[in-house]
Amino acid sequence: MTKNRNSIDVENEWVVTAMVWLMRIVVGGVFVLSGLAKAIDPWGSFYKFNEYLLALGWGGFTGLSLCGAFALPIIETILGVMILVGVYRRVAPILTLVFMLFMLPLTLWLAVTNAVPDCGCFGDALILSNWGTFGKNVALAFGLIFLLIFNTKVKGLYGPAVQWIIAALTFAFALALGLYGYFTQPLVDFRPYPVGTRLTTAVSSGMADDEYMFIYSKDGEEVEFTIDSLPEESDGWEFVDRRPIKHKPDTASIILQQRTHQLAVIDGGLDVSDDVLASGQQQLLLLFPDIQDVNIAHTFVINELTEYARAQGASVYGITSASESQIDQWNDISMADYPMLNADDSDIKMMARGNPAVVYVNDGFVKWKRTLGSINAERLRDPKVTLATLSSDYNAGDILRRLVSAYLLLMAALLIFNRTHVLMKFLYERLFKKNKQSEDD
């Protein structure tokens, strides 16, 4: 009877351990993904905070949005990592559940009123409906209640002595992502205009004639012709149909062709997108999401950049959603000699982060984009640097790989340092008991 009871206890212990680790991975993983998706793009979080405050009628507090845009994703990431690796086993579920007690009524209100169409829980990486978001938060709350009861019964990956270091490393990692995203550009671009996107218009987004084969019939025989070799109908040829030409581009070309997004640019009520985004040319787009908040000190760099771009054969355009009077005021203050055009506010903010931001377009493709403040003005005076290579001093992929590698290596090194004595103790006991048993035999 005792043996059966012990076996049942062991079995229950394994079930609890497995369930605790499952909840840690699910709940902690969701929080980590949510936090990092927002940490990478603080400008997006800033805009989303403004939407919430305006929807709540708290427009006077929008000055706090930037603080929230950095603080919220860092808090989410730290809480998620603490739950995921099992540190602060009692405190982490309590703090996270308190966080969820605030988020649950907020997301329920959003689901009922739809005051903000997209909650922004995962930034632009994953868009959930408001009811989907509320359901996700309810599931997380149940997971946290389970951890609140059982989390202390299962040890974590790290011992208590290094728990604070885990939180500190995670804080530094999330903050670094946010600083790069705010001052330069997000290290991962989940928006519709990533580098490599082909900018099209509603008129020009269709296929051109030279991308088709034209089928003509004569004497019962059908023959295909290109646009440059069409036969004369007077010779008896009759048009039958046309089909797209199936090219065999390399993988990179396929990816570029798939990344297309329409952009409408307006001048005096007229759509001038085809002129602004003319193929075979270079364009430097100066984006002003909030032109009234642009620091006047930026005008000197903008004017220098404008001269630099024109000297290399590029057209320069300012793009904003501001009113005509606001544009006139900007032109007077900045002495801008580039045309100021209008575009949809959301398109401007999605294309590039920053106020102002700079986007370089060549042959209709987005080649690079930066906040104006991150551009090194000294490179404008370097004869070896062209407009195409002006942003070569910033490689988002390399920076992200270095940050992630450094964080994971430090976490792994800390784990080895913290848990080596446990492994040594285990090996010692096994070897000592085996030797002692051999001696007794």
* Physical arrangement of strands within the biggest beta sheet: 10-9-8-11-12
Following the backbone from N to C, one meets helices and strands in this order, namely: HHHHHHEEEEHEEEHEHEHEHEEH
**What is the SS-derived class?**
alpha/beta
- Tell me the helix content: 40-55%
- Alpha carbon gyration radius: 30 Å
State the domain count.
4
State the distance separating the first and last CA atoms: 31 Å
Shape: globular
Give a count of the beta strands, DSSP E runs of length 2 or more.
Answer: 12
Total helices: the number is: 12
Low-confidence segments, ≥5 residues, pLDDT <50?
202-209, 247-258
Topology readout:
Layout: H1 2-39, H2 42-55, H3 65-85, H4 91-113, H5 130-150, H6 163-183, E1 198-200, E2 212-218, E3 221-225, E4 238-244, H7 251-258, E5 260-262, E6 266-267, E7 270-271, H8 273-276, E8 282-288, H9 298-311, E9 314-320, H10 324-334, E10 340-342, H11 345-351, E11 357-362, E12 365-371, H12 396-440
Parallel strand pairs: 1-5, 8-9, 9-10
Antiparallel strand pairs: 2-3, 2-4, 6-7, 8-11, 11-12
Helix pairs in contact: 1-3, 1-5, 1-6, 2-3, 3-4, 3-6, 4-5, 6-12
Could you describe the 3D structure shown?
There is one protein chain. The chain is of the alpha/beta class and 441 residues long. It is 51% helix and 13% strand. The protein has twelve helices and twelve strands. The protein has helices at 2-39, 42-55, 65-85, 91-113, 130-150, 163-183, 251-258, 273-276, 298-311, 324-334, 345-351, 396-440, and strands at 198-200, 212-218, 221-225, 238-244, 260-262, 266-267, 270-271, 282-288, 314-320, 340-342, 357-362, 365-371. The protein has a five-stranded mixed β-sheet. A three-stranded antiparallel β-sheet has the order 3-2-4, with no helix packed on it. Strands 1-5 form a two-stranded parallel sheet. The radius of gyration is 30 Å and the shape is globular.
